[in-house]
Design goal:
The protein has about 500 residues and is an alpha/beta fold. It contains 14 helices and 21 strands. It has a 6-stranded parallel beta sheet with strand order 2-1-3-4-5-6, sandwiched between helices. It has a 5-stranded mixed beta barrel with strand order 15-16-17-19-18. Strands 7-10-11 form a 3-stranded parallel beta sheet, with helices on both faces. Helix 9 (about 260-270) runs parallel beside helix 10 and helix 13 (about 355-370) runs parallel beside helix 14.
Length: about 500
């Protein structure tokens, strides 16, 4: 919902930062009115389409962008060819995501040629790097708007600048000290939501650009987080995912002492919320208090995403991960002792600079010891501006690919076996989507399940008996008493 007072509030806060664009509530109202005139003249509202790349933080940023666009009179379209505004929300973590953006921009250039009135915007992590912004401006000169991770709230003014003042807009701010929490949001799902608890990162892993594009770590006040989740619950939300580059270090920069474990206990008490997830957890900050909270909070899902990245202490040291493989394995042991049926997933990078065959073998051993329920696996890619990019002994691509395939040969049978252990068992599943009469949802262990049922069950938690499994999903059937699905409760 358009909230003029929210924009005015942000405008007052924003005066501490020097930018070319200032929030102006009168201009926002003018832009909204122009969009209403467009509706009267064309018989339809202006449409937008967002292409989101990268992590859940980017997904949440896209929800904020959707909320702002909706508040000024736009509606979303799934077809970019029918959009009046196309927005690229970009990721810089891996080269592949960057290449996808450039490839897609080339396709949109054709749409712009056919429809000169089409607005094209590029935002997100890629735009926080000056050399990439310059590349976009030079190679893709048809792009109208460029903004960064810290200036999402400026989007209506940037659109105003293009539509009314007829000039392109670029707005990038490196300062992350100020956080804007009053932005409207358009959630992708009514029954689940993403909630930021921290912004930025202080870890400086040598392969990662996040601290440079997202800034230093800053925790939100617990009262604001709790209030946001209470409002979500009142709106019908049943599952929240608490987001941060490192949720385990939540509270480190708050004026009063308040840990992530304490936050979990507080959220667990909110009426209406039935499931709590969080990511990403850094092993160096996973405390015994947090493990205890995972065990004691009945709404916290029995699933922990705990990125290991590598199984070799030498590689972990070069990555600046600040833990050893022994420490990591000890954490997993404590987790499984506290929560025996917990599902552990991870991230693994193959081919980090200087990785030897012995180092890689230790990563394989880590996978075999932990027996992950699933893993995101990546080939190391050079990211300019990071320390790892300057390291000697870069691993040849052919070696990376060969090791990557060997890793999957070990990992996938373990994941499949984990799923096979679920056959015949009944799990509460939050129904997320429906296609014809097939529903899709996730167990609290984050396992994807397909089963037959009515789309009226979207947003409900139903008990599903697993009947068949593959490596990446399971199939099942709703467990019923009579004709009524057995709901979790």
């Amino acid at each position: 919902i358009f909230n003029l007072e929210s924009w005015r509030k942000m405008s007052r806060i924003k005066t501490d930062i020097v930018t070319d664009i200032r929030l102006d509530s009168d201009k926002i109202i003018e832009l909204k009115n122009n969009n209403e005139q467009f509706l009267i003249a064309k018989g339809r509202r202006k449409t937008y389409h967002i292409l989101t790349y990268g992590c859940q933080m980017n997904e949440h940023d896209s929800e904020k962008i959707s909320g702002m666009l909706t508040s000024i009179g736009y509606v979303e379209t799934e077809d970019e060819k029918k959009a009046d505004l196309v927005i690229f929300n970009t990721c810089l973590i891996r080269e592949n995501a960057e290449l996808k953006v450039f490839g897609k921009l080339g396709e949109v250039k054709g749409l712009k040629r056919k429809n000169p009135n089409l607005l094209v915007a590029v935002c997100g992590c890629m735009m926080q790097r000056e050399e990439i912004r310059e590349k976009v401006q030079k190679k893709f000169s048809f792009v109208d708007i460029i903004f960064g991770t810290n200036t999402i709230h400026e989007l209506p003014m940037l659109i105003y600048n293009v539509e009314i003042n007829k000039r392109k807009s670029v707005d990038i701010v490196d300062n992350t000290e100020l956080i804007y929490e009053d932005m409207p949001k358009m959630r992708k799902f009514k029954h689940k939501a993403l909630v930021n608890i921290t912004y930025g990162c202080n870890n400086f892993c040598t392969y990662c650009v996040v601290p440079y594009v997202r800034g230093r770590e800053k925790s939100r006040d617990p009262e604001d987080i709790i209030q946001e989740i209470k409002l979500l619950a009142e709106d019908g939300c049943k599952e929240v995912t608490l987001l941060g580059q490192n949720v385990n270090s939540y509270g480190n920069n708050l004026e009063s002492e308040f840990t992530f474990a304490q936050l979990l206990y507080a959220v667990n008490e909110i009426e209406g919320i039935e499931r709590i997830r969080f990511m990403t957890s850094h092993p160096k900050d996973l405390t015994e208090d947090l493990i205890k909270a995972i065990k004691e909070c009945d709404k916290v899902c029995n699933h922990l995403h705990l990125p290991v990245q590598a199984g070799s202490n030498d590689v972990l040291k070069r990555m600046n991960r600040k833990y050893t493989k022994e420490h990591y394995l000890n954490l997993v042991e404590k987790l499984k002792e506290a929560v025996p049926d917990i599902a552990v997933t991870t991230d693994i990078i193959v081919g980090f600079p200087g990785e030897t065959e012995e180092d890689f073998s230790e990563t394989i051993e880590m996978v075999e010891k932990v027996e992950y329920d699933s893993a995101f696996t990546f080939l190391y890619s050079v990211r300019e501006g990071t320390k790892a990019a300057l390291m000697e002994d870069q691993v040849p691509d052919e070696v990376k690919h060969e090791r990557f395939n060997r890793l999957l040969d070990v990992l996938y049978p373990i994941v499949l076996k984990k799923n096979q252990d679920c056959i015949g068992k009944v799990f509460p599943v939050l129904v997320e989507t429906a296609e014809d009469d097939e529903l899709t949802g996730r167990t609290e262990h984050f396992k994807l399940v397909h089963f037959k049922g009515s789309k009226d069950l979207i947003g409900e938690i139903v008990n599903v008996k697993v009947t068949d499994v593959k490596t990446f999903h399971m199939k099942g059937e709703i467990k019923k008493y009579g004709d009524t699905p057995l709901l979790k409760g």
